[in-house]
Amino acid sequence: MSKKDTRPVFINLLQVKLPITGVVSILHRITGFVLFFTFPLLVWFLDRSLGSESSYLSLIEDVHSNISIKLITSLLVLLIVYHSLVGIKKLLNEFFGVGETLSSTKIMSWSTMALFLLFYVLFIVLFWF
User: Fold this and answer.
1) Which domains does the chain have, with CATH numbers?
2) Is the pLDDT of residue 1 over 70?
3) Does residue 87 or residue 100 have the better pLDDT?
């Protein structure tokens, strides 16, 4: 006699309540994916900044005068900062055992999010004003 399968067939991902550790992990993967595809843009920025003094000054002028480039730069900094902070958290977990229990993992996840928000607000204040 077979047991009836009670697993849900369709899961609405917008209604699933993920713990903070799951949210941090999924956002880390998403930022890594997006950064992978924005890598050519980052290389282009680096090329323009290292080409010559005039190309560097031109890049700085473009960033300060063009709002779309400024928004893209802000988004890239957002992605890099978040991905780096969560990557450091994961490295601390893997190599030093920090955050192996459920309660310490939640604390590490919330502190990573708080640190990210602090860094990003500081960046916004310094970059936009």
Assistant:
1) 20-128 (1.20.1300.10)
2) no
3) 87
